[in-house]
Fold these 2 entries.
Entry 1:
Amino acid sequence: MTVRIDQTRCIGSGQCVLAAPDVFDQSDDDGLGVVLVAEPPADLLPGVRDAVDRCPAQVVTLEE
Amino acid sequence: MTEAAVCPVHHERDHPLHPPIGFAEAVSDGPVRMVWPNGVEAWMVSSYAGVRQVLSDPRFSTRKGGQPEMRTDNGEEVLDPDQPGNINGIDGAEHMRLRRPLSRGFMVKRMNELRPRIQQIVDEHLDVMEAKGAPADLVASLCLPLPSLVIAELLGVPPEHQELFQATAGDLFGKNGSKDEYLAHATKLAEVLTPIVEAKRAAGTNDDMIGLMANDTDFSMEELIFLCIGLLAAGHETTSNFLGLFTLHLFEKPDQLEVLRRDPSRADVVVEELMRYTVGQLGGPGLTRRATEDVEVDGVLIKAGDWVSVSLMANLDEALCPRAEQLDLERDAVSHLGFGFGPHQCLGANLARAELQIGLRTLFERFPNLRPAVPVTEMRYRNDMITYGAAEIPVVW
Ligand code: HEM
Ligand code: SF4
């Protein structure tokens, strides 16, 4: 399971950080979403799925 | 095609906290054609999936050029569609150019840093309310002053300019004036802001919003000033109305208020559910877009050039959560549309969340017996078309 953010369309909303703070952060340089843990353990997956759903720019993906 | 129904753009409600009469029935069947008060015909989209699609699909544009203002009867446009710095009226790369640098100023981390200051502002205002004694008007005591003080903090308005800034901002947004009055107050606010921007430019700092825009972006002075005014406009009445409406919903549903009282540490989840429900119950036509190509939404073909308005009543769609028509403060946060969706989703959402969480939690912790001094149905409401809220909330404790 790999988590990715397509930064080219990210608007830096931070919804991913709210959904899964252990997996996502925002870059201090530009506020864009960054993935901290690309292969998150199972207990963090619900938060990641929530981030996929909530991301207003629809740029967070979780590949099975 | 069948004749389009007239869009019920009004605030006649059978209860001040329910949707406008007839609205739910009018929008229930997927995209429907409706006529706005100014005669423009548009699609109304109100399903959860449909609203998400319209707000996030790049084939729908937010450019308002040529659109007579839908919410007013006389079609008067309050804002020039080509106004530099109008972040809500541009798409794609142009929008990203303005939005990205601002996002940095609204980062979750940055909002968390602001929390102690927000708490302090809330505490100070509740101190004054308590000292003056019951009954008090919650709107004047807390809901109205909080957002503009917080935005001034975020922008980085220096203490010596605060009083003038607050007074001018109050003139600009406190009343439903004419377009001319609005423009005169906006000019005044621009005059207050210009020297502040110049000083930050000279100092080269970027630790607040104005400094960040002045020193880390290619924004022109005109864009920058308009963005500052835009932040105030977008974040002032919205947040203050919602803090008031949340409180009223809790007054009307004592069992739900009990949920917050039992565990105030869940204020974050509670605010998400209140946001979902309150926005859904407001009803109304919501946000406007225009199709740039033919697009199918909920099985209906919307043609290039058609106007579309999305109703955030979609927050009450069962596709979002079970028993969506009910306020349930025990449910986990769901992906609601209270702050919109897509690239224009509310820039200030995380700031508004912090204010609402701290405001609501502190209010009921400090005054566990807080209750309305008159019935909620007998309070005065502001029937302004863009924002809806209580004009006064008389409370005792
Ligand atoms: C409870 C309070 C608030 C609510 C319900 C709210 C709601 C919204 C909604 C629904 C949109 C989307 C508009 C669209 O798609 O066309 C939006 C956009 C926006 N909001 Fe908020 N808002 C709130 C507070 C704030 C605050 C505190 C600020 C700033 C200090 C703010 C700044 C903005 C800006 C700048 C936009 C335009 C973003 C863009 O077009 O890219 N809002 N807001
Ligand atoms: S939620 Fe989406 S748009 Fe927002 S910061 Fe994360 S990746 Fe970017």
Note: Chain A is about 25% helix and 20% strand.
Entry 2:
Amino acid sequence: MVRVSLFVTCVVDQVFPNVGMAMAKVLEAAGCEVEFREAQTCCAQPAFNSGYRDQARTVAEHFLTTFEGAEYIVVPSGSCCSMISHHFAELLPGDNRVHDLEPRVFEFSQFLTNVLKVEDVGASFDGLVTYHDSCHALRELKIKDGPRKLLQNVRGLRLVEMDTAEECCGFGGTFSVKFPEISGGMVRTKIDAIERTGASTVVSIDSSCLMQIQGALDRARSKIRTMHLAEVLANTLKAAE
Amino acid sequence: MKTPDVTAALGDKKLQLAIYSATARLGERRRETITSDHEELRQYAHDIKKHTLDHLDFYLEQLERNVEARGGKVIWAKDGAEACAFIQNLARKRGVKVIVKSKSMTTEEIHLNEHLEEVGIEAVETDLGEYILQLGGEKPFHIIAPALHKTKEDVSDIFEKHLHSKRETSPEGLTKIARVALREKFLEAGMGITGANFLVADSGAIVLVENEGNARLSSSAPKIHVAVSGIEKVIPRAQDLGVFLKLLARSATGQPLSVYTSFLAGAKREGEPDGPEEFYLVLLDNGRTRLLADESKRQSLYCIRCGACLNHCPVYRKIGGYNYPWVYSGPIGKILTPQFMGIEHDPWLPFASSLCGACGEVCPVKIEIPRILLELRSDKVANDPDRAELWSFKVWAWVMRHPKFYARLAPLALSAAPPVGPVKKWLSQRDLPVPPAKSFRDLWKERSK
Ligand code: SF4
């Protein structure tokens, strides 16, 4: 049995707990043994991206200690996953633990398609869906087709592409509050593209992007909902008990 | 940290549409010309740039020898003042009153036109976009499409006002008006000034790439040709040009090759029918050697000024070219400006990015712009930390290392955060989600019971 340690990220833990639960459900249904290490907190990205490397380093070290010995670490966020697999090395150059960790950290959809080789989880979902490529998943982790395949195999789900799926939603962590007008302008362009598709749901693999997009949709009084890929895949899927 | 007020640009619907559609068009054309060997070409170009800049002294000396062997003269300018002074003096000595110029961001960087104007020399921009802006008293909005924000109607307005032409809104008609006005200047000019896209060390040639033919004319019609170039534009061999010319044309405008590629080698020699009588190459440092010293950010100098990173930058596409503090806008401006001017000059600049990475993805010479932005942010914090922010990250890091505190404090922080500071800024643009009753860790505990 594949043993998986969840890293649920601070945003999922505190703001979107159902995403974490959904991810666990899908992984268990796919035959994984899932654990959650309670000492986990954050991937250190907020400090790293804001230029506070000393502070980021201590949090990265906490992460390394927490996940020592884990076989696979699965993360419901391309951005946090990339922080660990691509940027920890910049923070802790020459640290063997980082080197050892990198090949074992996966973003959720990537873990399903590349490690478990699963493209159909047996879920069903009724509706027209569009997929937003989150930047770090797309450009740092090279995730593009995997989530789309998983979605296409969901019963009842019809996937429609927006014309600018690869364009940033404007979240960017502290960028969203340091430059609120620019970030707001970016997300409004994004939701225009989403609206043009006629989809009723927009799906992504990063909850932070979805928080930004949902916030703008709500502000515009749109009926479109955002959902994390894990939530769609967990739909009508019975927990493996 | 003070940030610029970008509300005017964001609120200008006409401007937004102009930027968005022009950059989308350039991006679309770029995608259409990309070939299957694109990644290999990028890596090759990156490697050549790396090699050249790692041995820059060698290639610059070789270039100088070869330029002078062909009868040209090389002038080393430490900064803009030296470069401008040389050109002013030369013009004065030769009695030049009118200079024709082709598009060059390097001369924008040193404010050459203003310096020439001060001593009574008329320098006329001959690239159509630059000419429009010069007439209207504006600066380039984009590094390759300087008048990208101008509509045909705007251009007609400018021509009516300054050239007293009739209303004309067809691109062909407008080009014709400019051509007639510029032809006179070409005939009058005693000197032509160009930039340089590439300097070829092994042959001493200057390579100019353009679509209008004005650079070719500026460098060959007047008696004197002065090319102004940053020292980083040198490449070792003529045979490497194939890769660079392809990459530049595809990335910049989505053309297989630009319309005109000129190889200029020195002044006219005996028996040659045309060309300038005197040729000068001004090699400009202006802070470049300082960048060179920084190994991890040195690749900022690989830039071939194609503009692709601007066209794909969601921030540039919102705020346009005039909200950047220096001549270089967009992602490349964000990494060059703090390194040329010092991080204290505009500390907000490297932070004005969502780190989406689109710039690094399209850059034909593979400059890791996002990584450099992150390093610059760290430099800014090391140089001049914001006290309050530093303390909040210290507290944050402590909490993140103490899971029990984190588990208790995080929900409190979320539900009780007052609508000031970051929360207020967030709410200025979008709604916040309702915090859940239970965190994941609570749900997980319940489930495991
Ligand atoms: S940084 Fe790269 S993409 Fe941007 S202008 Fe320079 S060469 Fe082009």
Note: Residues B 251, 303-309, 332, 362-365, 367 surround iron/sulfur cluster (CB under 6 Å).
